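## retry 2 of 3
previous attempt timed out at serialization; input unchanged, resubmitting
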Amino acid sequence: MFEIEAKVNKIMDKETVGAKSSPKRDVVFDIDLKSNYPKVLVITFWEKTMEQVEPLTTGQEVNLKFRAESREYNGRYFTNCTAISVAPIGDIPESPNSDLPPPLPPEDDADDMPF
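## retry succeeded, writing output
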């Protein structure tokens, strides 16, 4: 299992695949590896984790847990990344924090120069 912080780049449309018509949805994430070129990672959300995609928005920072699996077919290797969970980072509170004092009113002392 891998865990990274990433930014939602694009949420693809829901698809059904395979003989069982299993629903899936791919999400493209930007990952920051401190390099000169941006990196992207496509994660597949299957039926059990697909509801976690609904509240996500493009540009949102998330904590992403996934597993990577590779398989060989006709001498070529293919890798799939499957989501385990995704959670937003730094949610904005819905109501303002009432513990903070109200902002100070602006001062009209334009003529009072400190020097």
